[in-house]
Amino acid sequence: MRSYQPDLTPPWKKSTPVPEVPAEPDLVVEEAVTGFCGAVIRCEKTAQGPTVTLEDRFGKARVFPMEPRGFLLEGRVVTLVRPSAGGPVRPARTASGSVAVPGARARVARAGRIYVEGRHDAELVERVWGDDLRIEGVVVEYLEGVDDLPSIVREFAPGPDARLGVLVDHLVPGSKESRIAAQVTDAHVLVVGHPFIDVWEAVKPSSVGIPGWPAVPRGQDWKTGVCRALGWPENTGAAWQHILSKVSSYKDLEPQLLGRVEELIDFVTLPD
């Protein structure tokens, strides 16, 4: 009769079972050794065993062996396995073009902020970059103009762990906005802007279904003038909602705005 042999392995040396997760396309995981975080773009069989290719939000791809306990999913250790045929397909990208993170929870808000000039600016940023901002824990606030920007920056008291990014409309040489922005010299503040008179112009005319944004005579309210020139009712709030409804992704925006918002997000999320 076989005698019983007790397991004398200390508890801290015992391997705890971890869940097996199918490496489905666009699943976002972190490789446990290197810390590389990205979305699954493919799995392959090799002579050394199965591998998975991950792509990060900047488009950089790396190949890793699918070893047991080799990855983290939402902070938990998991083992990636090859997905079965016909598995569910997750959305690949957010509206900003970043890799989507299905089921990701919003991060606790950072001390840093992004300030934009007005409500329309904030609504447009939310529509395109909202998913990214929640994952990064970045809050966007609007200022109702930039005339008091230097004093607003002083009151915010930016620092290494509380960076401030500011997006300014019509930031072109010689403009009032450029003179105000030049007064902000704090190393923990980044002021960038686009050349458009108003953020409406940052939406591509083709997306709105118009041949172009009309020229409005100086001295006339620009938004009201746009409505008149296009034959829209002179209700700028309703006009903006119509414009915003035509924006579904970064492809509907002009590059001059896209680059500036991405720059601000990178700035306020830099490591302390």
Automatic annotation (TrEMBL):
Domain DUF3097: start-end pairs: 20-83, 113-269
Domain of life: Bacteria
InterPro entries cross-referenced by the UniProt entry: DUF3097_C (IPR021447), DUF3097_N (IPR053883)
UniProt region (Disordered), positions on chain: 1-21
Protein name as catalogued: DUF3097 domain-containing protein
Provenance organism: Streptomyces atroolivaceus
